[in-house]
Recover the amino acids of this structure.
């Protein structure tokens, strides 16, 4: 019997946006991109349990996007390939954070999310006019795992979602099961080779382009030299392996030391791409997290949360910012559970995972010394010094050129003086490149306010930056207060005084 959950792709998109809009009113729209990605993964896993993949599945997949988010562009071959590579369901990191926030505030947004997920997946299961038992079982598995997080974190009870098993209309074998049977009956052996042929090769990053990006970074000469030495070392190691020569064991995990805004994340991203380009890593993606992305609020949950992050980083680099915060909470802090999970992953996935920990120099040294496992695995240290005034100005000029702004000679001198003073009077909260970005954004606002007052600004006006565009609002007000009063007003006051 056909299901009543069948909808056209256009109707489904309206349902999807209505559900997500209602959820964002409670949970905030900042997680829209992550939620859409998560929903897409759930759809792929769900359809692997259905009867087959058709163009209707493609049309529905292209409707899984929230309001103001980009629309996907799936094709039948790419969707089928991705479904064949389906993964075990793991709750996303944002859901852990959502549940923990609910527990603290006494709200139930995470329970609302489960109801929304159930509804959307039932519509997706019905794309072929049937809801199979395996599809319903998968939806139940998803909701059970999410409910378990709510229960362990202490989220209050709420209205229960629909029971997917009540809407089953078909017991047909799943798409994956039928694929296995077809492989076996066509003389393809165990099907392993066939599955490997379907897997698309990962496109390698462009080595020369990444090296150019490294060279273009302002300052960091010692870091650049060390990165080049490391890349040359890894190239030779790969050549020795190819020629059946012994290669001594070597740890590639690193510690980046320095203040905020000194380019640590940028260098980590370039390095991960370079490693992929020369074949050290398979993919070369950078997964960036801090303590909040690894640590949960209850015993046993941190390991699961950390494992999900590690899974995303396999084949690339896991970059942990302010890593010292994982060991700053004492013996009973859950951060230690995250550390132990990461150390185990570094051992279990030594050929497919590189971990970079980063943060202020002093706290990071204490962090590494806090655990013998950390000391033994992290033996490469990169120091990122503060940018001086000249380097800060070079970064600022680069931002102006990239975004179509031209500094006048006077503005260039004013900016140079500003960044020199910023560096010489820096405090412990000095933001380096972040401070430059803030100054650049302030300049854009000031310049826009000035140009907006012009009756017919030219292209040159839109590009030109004057010294006053670099001044803060308070400085501008002070200058206005110092301006001489209009001559007409002064003359009238003089006449009144004479009378």
């Amino acid at each position: 019997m056909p299901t009543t959950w069948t909808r056209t792709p256009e109707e489904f998109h309206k349902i999807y946006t209505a559900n997500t809009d209602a959820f964002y009113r409670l949970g905030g729209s900042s997680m829209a991109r992550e939620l859409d990605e998560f929903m897409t993964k759930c759809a792929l896993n769900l359809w692997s349990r259905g009867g087959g993949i058709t163009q209707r599945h493609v049309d529905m997949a292209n409707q899984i996007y929230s309001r103001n988010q980009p629309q996907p562009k799936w094709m039948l071959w790419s969707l089928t390939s991705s479904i064949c590579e389906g993964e075990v369901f793991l709750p996303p990191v944002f859901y852990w954070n959502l549940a923990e926030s609910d527990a603290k505030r006494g709200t139930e947004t995470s329970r609302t999310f489960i109801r929304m997920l159930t509804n959307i997946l039932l519509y997706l299961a019905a794309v072929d006019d049937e809801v199979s038992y395996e599809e319903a079982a998968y939806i139940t598995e998803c909701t059970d795992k999410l409910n378990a997080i709510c229960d362990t974190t202490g989220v209050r009870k709420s209205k229960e979602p629909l029971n997917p098993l009540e809407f089953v209309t078909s017991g047909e074998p799943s798409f994956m099961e039928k694929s296995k049977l077809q492989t076996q009956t066509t003389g393809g052996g165990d099907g392993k080779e066939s599955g490997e042929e379907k897997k698309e090769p990962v496109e390698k990053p462009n080595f020369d382009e990444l090296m150019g990006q490294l060279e273009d970074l302002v300052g960091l000469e010692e870091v650049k030299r060390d990165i080049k030495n490391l890349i040359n070392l890894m190239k030779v190691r790969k050549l020795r392996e190819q020629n059946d020569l012994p290669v001594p064991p070597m740890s590639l995990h690193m510690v980046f030391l320095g203040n905020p805004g000194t380019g640590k994340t940028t260098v980590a991203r370039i390095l991960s791409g370079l490693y992929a380009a020369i074949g050290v890593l398979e993919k070369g993606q950078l997964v960036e997290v801090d303590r909040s992305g690894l640590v949960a609020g209850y015993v046993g949950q941190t390991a699961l949360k950390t494992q999900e992050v590690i899974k995303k980083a396999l084949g690339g680099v896991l970059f942990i910012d302010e890593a010292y915060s994982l060991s700053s909470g004492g013996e009973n802090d859950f951060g230690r559970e995250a550390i132990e999970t990461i150390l185990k992953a570094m051992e279990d996935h030594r050929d497919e995972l590189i971990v970079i920990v980063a943060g202020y120099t002093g706290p990071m040294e204490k962090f590494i010394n806090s655990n013998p496992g950390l000391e033994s695995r992290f033996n490469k240290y990169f120091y990122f010094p503060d940018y001086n005034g000249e380097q800060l100005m070079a970064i600022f000029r680069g931002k102006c050129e990239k975004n179509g702004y031209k500094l006048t000679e006077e503005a260039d001198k004013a900016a140079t003086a500003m960044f020199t003073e910023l560096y010489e009077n820096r405090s412990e909260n000095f933001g380096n490149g972040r401070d430059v970005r803030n100054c650049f954004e302030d300049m854009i606002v000031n310049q826009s306010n000035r140009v907006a007052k012009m009756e017919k600004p030219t292209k040159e006006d839109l590009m030109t930056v004057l010294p006053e565009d670099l001044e803060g609002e308070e400085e501008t007000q002070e200058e206005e207060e110092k301006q001489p009063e209009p001559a007409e007003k002064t003359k009238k006051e003089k006449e009144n005084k004479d009378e």
Summary: The chain has three domains: 9-198, 207-384, 389-482.
